Every structure is written in structure tokens, then in C-alpha cells.
Amino acid sequence: MAQYDIPALVKKIQPAVVMIITYNEDGKGLGQGSGFFISGNGDIITNRHVFEGANRAEVKTSDGKIYTVKNIVAEDKDGDLLRISIDIPVQVEENHAKGIFLFSLKRLIHGRSVRYLNVSASIPEVGEKVVVIGNPFGLEQTVSDGIVSAVRDIPGFGNIIQITAPLSSGSSGSPVVNLKGEVIGVATFIFTKGQNLNFAIPGERVTKLAPGEAKTLAEQKVVTTEESLASAEGLYSKGLALSGWKTTRRRYPTSRRRSRKTRATPRLIFISDIAGVN
């Protein structure tokens, strides 16, 4: 693929990108985020905070079809990652060759096998070109591009990838993809009061998110993000003060007692959309 053939890259990525909509126990819209297929059986990677407080969730694929989130199959609390599965019907596919009938079971979306993205465990080079596709403010399949502006080693947490590709509320869980079409990170944070200071959890953490015992949302209800990001306190030492973040439920869960002046300072926040998205 040509180095800057972005349109061709986007066409390759878009079928794998999904919108995630969460609901509370009363069935009311709680919030919205993004995600992407990671396997042919319909497993999806997204951010853990997208599911905070959710009792039920749906996934909308690029062709407009909606599927129910069936299970959480893996979780990385510190890395703010979830691997979820959706209920895609299994269909029988028939092949006839040399007089022999072969039958296979496949999960199909819009008549095609699930399109999924490969994840790179390698840390990207600073200056490397990246593309992000997600659903900011519910604007489906929005494309932005930029570069890797830094790779920061956060004590007690690990690497975080800083990118210049624009992100907004609803972008949480979007794949950050290199020009080879590989996922090098998952869009998670933005730094307020700045220009394109955005952050992604590296792909290396995604590759370690192996499927385990499957649990429903009711069985493994995602609790507050304060616990899941306890290790992110190391961000303070790098000047990325975690003074508050916007989630689907609360705006300042860790800075409710701070003064108005403090709240006006730059903040590192999650980028899932606000409540009430239906």
C-alpha cells in the first residue's frame, strides 16, 4: 500500500469499527463509545470505562445492524480495556469442489465473514503516521489522522502513546492504526486545555488480553473507574495530572472537592460520550 494512501486504508478498516451504546438497569441510554473487531468470531476490543455502570449494551456495525453484547470475555482494569463478545448468528456455508460438498460454520455480518483488525505488539516510532476511526458524539465512522507525537513510560503503569489525531467524546475504544492497517493503540484519553494532546493504550496490552471465563454484564458489572485506574497515579509525575475525567455517569469523580480555579486547569479525561445517547 502506498505510504499515504489513506482512502484505501480507511476502506480496509471501517468494516471492523463499531459503535457501542450502553443502557442502565431502567433501559435508558447511558453512554456511547467505539470499538473494533479483533477476531472472526465477533470479539470486540473497547475501553472498560465505556461500560461503567452499564446493565445492557448494544453494538452497531458499519452496515447499520445492531447486535446485543453477550459477554465480557477478558478485562484489563489497569489498562482500561475490555474484550467483549456479541451475539452474531452462526450460518452454514456450503462449498462444492470436485464433487465433494464441504460445510463450515461461520459468523457473518451483512453476508460476509467478520472483518477484524490485527493488533501489533510493537511500540510505534515517534513521528509515525496514524489513522483513527470512531464515533465522536455519535458521528459514525469518523476518520482523523495524525502522528505519534510521543511514547511515554508511566511509572507503575507502562507505556502510553501520545498522538495528534483529533479525538472527541465518543472516541473511546477507537482503533489507532498505522499505515500497514495494524492497530497500535486504543484511543482512551484527551488532555484538556491543549492542542491535540491525545492518548492511546498501546496494542501490546491488547495482545495480552486473552479470553477467559465469559461473564454477562449483570454478572460482571463494571464499577467505578477510580479503582480501575489506580495505577494511573504515575501520570502525575509526567505532568499529566489526573484531576478529573468525564464519564457516562459523573463529570468529576476524583475532584469533587476541588475549587473552581483548580477545575479550570488542564485535565486528563476519558472520551466516552455523555449520558442520554440513544
How would you characterize this protein structure?
This protein has 278 residues and is mainly beta. The chain has a domain at 118-208 and 229-270: Thrombin, subunit H (Beta Barrel). Helices cover 8% and strands 39% of the residues. It has 4 helices and 16 strands. The protein has helices spanning 6-13, 203-207, 225-228, 260-263, and strands spanning 17-23, 29-37, 43-47, 56-60, 66-76, 81-86, 90-97, 100-109, 112-113, 129-134, 142-154, 158-163, 175-177, 183-191, 198-202, 268-270. The strands form 3 sheets. The protein has a 6-stranded antiparallel β-barrel. It has a 6-stranded antiparallel barrel with strand order 10-11-12-15-14-13. Strands 7-8-9 form a 3-stranded antiparallel beta sheet, with no helix packed on it. It is globular and about 45 Å long. The model is unreliable at 227-265 and 274-278 (pLDDT under 50).
The CATH class of the domain at 118-208 and 229-270: Mainly Beta
β-strand percent reads 35-45%
Average residue-wise pLDDT: 78
Unreliable residue runs = 227-265, 274-278
Could you say what the CATH architecture of the domain at 118-208 and 229-270 is?
Answer: Beta Barrel
Based on DSSP secondary structure assignment, what is the total number of beta strands? 16
Q: CATH H-level name of the domain at 118-208 and 229-270... which superfamily? A: Trypsin-like serine proteases
Helix content: under 10%
The string of secondary-structure elements, in order, is HEEEEEEEEEEEEEEEHHHE
